[in-house]
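Duplicate of #3305? Posting structure anyway:
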């Protein structure tokens, strides 16, 4: 399996995933691995706003963006309504801008 992207998980995302039940951890990591290999067809990805995207895995939502050859997973939460909360998208956009400006390593 050849990787086209490098997955980068922010610390809060790592902690959240590590606290999931094992089967859910495997599904989330499997979906992220599919994205790393460039397989965007086998997972459900939704464009949210600008460069911000959402990966859906069961009831979990991972907010991410792609920069150069990295997929940066910056937020994760349990989806409780039909629409992605506006504050999650706003926070993701702020993180993206800081990342692009090299203010977040």
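Output from current build:
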């Amino acid at each position: 399996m050849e990787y086209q992207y490098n997955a980068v998980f922010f610390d809060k995302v790592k902690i959240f995933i590590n606290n999931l039940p094992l089967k859910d951890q495997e599904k989330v990591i499997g979906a992220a691995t599919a994205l790393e290999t460039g397989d965007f067809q086998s997972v459900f990805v939704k464009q949210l706003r600008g460069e911000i995207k959402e990966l859906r895995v069961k009831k979990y939502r991972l907010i991410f963006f792609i920069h150069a050859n990295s997929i940066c997973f910056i937020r994760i939460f349990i989806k409780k309504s039909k629409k992605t909360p506006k504050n999650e998208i706003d926070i993701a956009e702020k993180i993206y801008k800081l990342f692009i400006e090299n203010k977040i390593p």
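Confirmed duplicate; merging threads. The two ends are 27 Å apart (CA to CA). The chain has a mean pLDDT of 92.
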